[in-house]
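Why run this: before we spend reagent on co-expression, it is cheaper to look at a predicted model of the complex and decide which construct boundaries make sense. The entries below are exactly what would go into the expression plan.
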Amino acid sequence: MTVRNRWSWLGRVAALLILAAVHPIGAHHSFAMYDHERTLNLRGTVTRFQWTNPHAYLELDVPNRSGGGVTHYSLECTSINMMQRAGWRSSDIKAGDRVKAVAAPLLNGQPAGLLLEVTLPDGRKLEPGVPAATTFKRTPDTEN
Amino acid sequence: MPATNTGPNGARGAVRRALVSLTVALACAAAAAGQGRAQQAGSAPAPDITGSWERYGFGGGRGGGDPQAAALRPPPAPQPPLKPMYLKEWQARVQAAREADAKGQPLATGYTHCLPDGMPSMMAAMFPLEILQSRGQVTIIEEAFTQVRRIHLDRPQKALADVEPGFFGYSVGRWQGDTLVVDTIGIKEDVRYQNTPHSSQMRITERIRLVSPQVLWDEITIEDPVTLEKPWTVTYAYRRTPDYSLLEYVCEDNREYADDKGVQQIRIGPAK
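The model came back. Tokens follow.
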């Protein structure tokens, strides 16, 4: 393990501990309606980035894998105050942007999810700072 | 009016007026300079707690990097010492919320309806706080839902019947040495702290003090002759965040809503 890798690993452990610690009071709203056991890896075109409190929303058209057409997903973020503290700006995403989103799906099967991470057209990755984000098991992305 | 006029409205009068204005301006400036600190009757000025703060010490969270953190972490919060019939109701509510979460069907809360915490929940400060000390008043703002409470200094508390119940109640406070002691009454019965039932007679006493130059504690004691067997004390700790300026927060479009069973849902779309 190189020195750099070791630090990166330590950083991840530290981040996990911090997120686990803030969990009890990290959110005003329950995220229990989202599946903690799998994530969606979505590539699509942004139709709207709703920059509002209490939560922001990323609206995404995702081409269907078969049969043509698109499925529209509404992806819930956290408070825009939390997002601003994590470095986000309302101008980071706009309609027409092609992005990759990692989201925990709604348990009731509707096409919606909790955004955990988004990769912007310029390759920049942003996280909305979902409390205890590490408790959502990530499904490997098979489309790399 | 001729410039040589030496009457009260003439040049000499103008000089006198200018001197008076200057004196008033200097006095105002001095008063303004002192306004950052609340006036304390008699002796030393009140401690300076003006500025922004973040909740601190909840199990090593954001304050975890501070070497002094462990020593300045407040004692853990006990369960509410409710009288048996209220305890039963509270336990049932907590259990129902836990079971709903486990089923992935969380129960809607006040937040689902864009409602603020109210007192004393806002002092749990999920989002940053700002404290402002001005003459005769300490104002506490919580960023989330732009919650504001006003603590009127050195004034008698009102009679309960004279306070219209609300989210933040009516607060009076006084500095006792280094501690701001605040008395709050008049919290609406449906404004609940940690789901705990309370009556219109609930009284909140806070002891707010700096435990180090950078760490502020708020020891909150709740008394309620109807629902509580004995006073219930919970302490929150905050650390100074001098570089942070509170952001605006308007609950503008909550797409989470309560369905007819009281379960939280979200509105899907619109696409554009």
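Chain B touches chain A at residues 55, 58-62, 64, 100-102, 104-107, 109, 111-112, 114, 124, 126-127, 143-144, 247, 249-256, 264-272 (CB under 8 Å). The first helix of chain B runs from residue 11 to 34. Bring this page to Monday's planning discussion.
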